[in-house]
TrEMBL record:
SUPFAM superfamilies: Winged helix' DNA-binding domain (SSF46785). It comes from Caldalkalibacillus thermarum (strain TA2.A1). This is Metalloregulator ArsR/SmtB family transcription factor. Keywords: DNA-binding, Transcription, Transcription regulation. PROSITE patterns: HTH_ARSR_1 (PS00846), HTH_ARSR_2 (PS50987). Residues 40-134 form the HTH arsR-type domain. The keyword Amino-acid biosynthesis does not apply.
């Protein structure tokens, strides 16, 4: 693959490549102002990966889905829904709570969980919508 780099009059960096692919640009042209601004802003995502790792677990995702469909569920409800023990359900719910995705309240001997924010429900709904578009 042969490459050639030049800078245009507008200060835009251009790298020309002689390889053709459908999912990549045939030339390498970037906007220095946009790139510089976004390079500064992209660091806002620092620390978000653990949140998405928690959601990447199938069981926790099912729990989040169930919580998004009800105002609240007790640990026993969740355990039954996912087919696990109360201890396993509590473990997953605790992780969701620690990541700020769920909250809990105790009533007597029962512990009830709900979503921390409506944004979590919207995230699940949007993911399901995107999945349906595939």
């Amino acid at each position: 693959m042969e490459e050639k780099s030049i800078i245009s009059k507008r200060g835009i960096g251009i790298k020309i490549s002689k390889t053709k692919q459908d999912d990549t640009c045939e030339t390498f042209i970037f906007d220095p102002e946009k790139v510089a601004r976004l390079q500064r802003e992209v660091n806002q995502t620092d620390g978000l990966a653990p949140l998405f790792k928690v959601l990447a677990d199938e069981t926790r995702l099912k729990i989040i889905y169930a919580l998004s469909r009800e105002d609240e569920l007790c640990v026993c409800d969740v355990a039954t829904i996912i087919g696990s023990t109360n201890a396993a359900a509590s473990h997953h719910l605790r992780m969701l709570r620690n990541m700020g995705l769920a909250k809990n309240r105790k009533e007597g001997k029962m512990v009830f969980y709900s979503l921390e924010s409506e944004h979590v429900r919207h995230l699940i709904d949007e993911a399901l919508r995107l999945k349906g578009r595939r």
